[in-house]
Amino acid sequence: MPILESLPERLLLGPGPSNAHESVLRAMSLPLLGHLDPAFIALLDRVKDGLRTVFGTRNAMTLPLSATGSAGMEAALVNLLEPGEPVVIGVNGVFGGRMAEVARRAGAQVTKVEAEWGTILEPGRMIEAIRTVRPRVVAFVHAETSTGVCQPVEEIAAAAREADAMVVLDCVTSLAGRPVELDAWGVDAAYSGTQKCLSCPPGLSPVSFSDRAIARVKARSTPVQSWFLDLSLLAGYYEGEKRVYHHTAPITAIYGLAAGLDRVLDEVLPARFARHAAAGERLVAGLEAAGFTPLVAPAHRLPMLTSVLLPERVQKAGEASVRTRLLEEHGIEVGAGLGPLAGRIWRIGLMGENARPEIVDRLLAALRTLIG
Ligand SMILES: Cc1ncc(COP(=O)(O)O)c(C=O)c1O
Predict the structure, then answer these.
(1) 23-82 pLDDT per residue, tens
(2) Euclidean distance between CA atoms 229 and 219, whole angstroms
(3) Ligand 1 centre from 227 Cα, in Å?
(4) What distance in Å separates the CA atoms of residue 256 and residue 274, rounded to the nearest whole number?
(5) What is the spatial distance between Cα 5 and Cα 1, in angstroms, rounded to a whole number?
(6) pLDDT tens-digit readout, 227-277
(7) Where are the domains of the chain?
(8) 170 lines ligand 1 (CB under 6 A)
(9) What is the structure's pLDDT at 23?
(10) What is the C-alpha to C-alpha distance for residues 43 and 3, in angstroms, rounded to an integer?
(11) Which atom of ligand 1 is closest in space to residue 195's alpha carbon?
(12) How far does the centroid of ligand 1 lie from the alpha carbon of residue 70, in Å?
């Protein structure tokens, strides 16, 4: 029996991955080029340009790291922090918590500013911590996928810069689904993943570092603990006139990202953001009518990730078994709650290609057949 036999078709409406567009999958079956072939380097440079547009930046050091979003998180923190340095990290969900753990393992002195899951980090509390701790880095999550909260960025970033701290922002779920403006917001390092609103498969982590961040990395007194994610070494392959081998770039994944970015840029960003916003609103209205309650206050909801408290009849039926039936009988995946929200919420993603009214209606119709 072949290893790759047959696979079911799924509509991926969980917290990621989302469905990749067929143009992306087609691009990924194109013939391989060598990773130092001038034709591939030219493609890579166009991908970097496309990423600058979606990140809202002119940062030279903008590139797709060869691993998932977690590598972007790790790269941002281990390059900008040295052992013993203070860092302030906002934690209002799983991914803020992970940032704190990565920073702790890098030997930094971590101060967490925590907020209840489902609420934003109050800028005032972050600013107070920044003024007290005087950190080298301030890190937080723009779109917290574990809760569906969209974090306001600018006020916190301004206070961090005033204190001469680097600002690190997790944009894994927000990028290409709602505005990300690194330069206007004063963010020094940001990272994302390809499997969410870019509608590509998982496997790459788009990252961007400001010149200020690069200067900080160059001024380090200790080497970056990760050889693979050391920006100074990565620059040898991703930047400059003469490209040298660092690791073998994942050619096929980069073709896919190129096709994904082409679709994003053809649609034009404001239209794409409006499409996500409209789909998110339609979903919330439909779920409320079906008895679900949004977890997050309207002003801070993410359009691409809706988290809802479950009605009694879903809890009675067993939320996991309803999700299983949705998958097996309707081919639709939605996400469960994590941490303190496990068993209490569902997380429904409308990311990239899936942020469309007909997709919302398909989910709502399937739910009606299962829970009435
Ligand atoms: C906000 C956020 N940060 C980081 C990650 C980690 O990304 P990956 O799973 O691609 O490594 C995720 C993944 O879902 C995420 O949603």
Answers:
(1) 999 999 999 999 999 999 999 999 999 999 999 999 999 999 999 999 999 999 999 999
(2) 17
(3) 22
(4) 24
(5) 7
(6) 999 999 999 999 999 999 999 999 999 999 999 999 999 999 999 999 999
(7) 11-15+268-371, 22-265
(8) yes
(9) 98
(10) 32
(11) 10
(12) 6
In which element (H, E) is residue 61 found? strand 61-65
Indicate the CATH number of 11-15+268-371 among 1.20.140.150, 3.40.50.300, 3.90.1150.10, 3.40.190.10.
3.90.1150.10
Whether the per-residue pLDDT at 372 is higher than 90: the answer is no
- 295 in ligand 1 pocket by Cβ < 6 Å? no
Q: What is the CATH number of domain 22-265?
A: 3.40.640.10
Q: What is the mean pLDDT of the chain?
A: 98
**Ligand 1 atom showing the smallest separation from residue 146 Cα:** 16
Cα of 345 vs centre of ligand 1, distance in Å, is 19
Instruction: Give the per-residue pLDDT at 1.
Output: 83
Q: Using the mean position of ligand 1's atoms as its centre, give its distance from the Cα of residue 222 in Å.
A: 28
Structural contact between residues 306 and 256, judged by C-beta atoms closer than 8 angstroms: no
Share of the chain above pLDDT 90, in %: 99
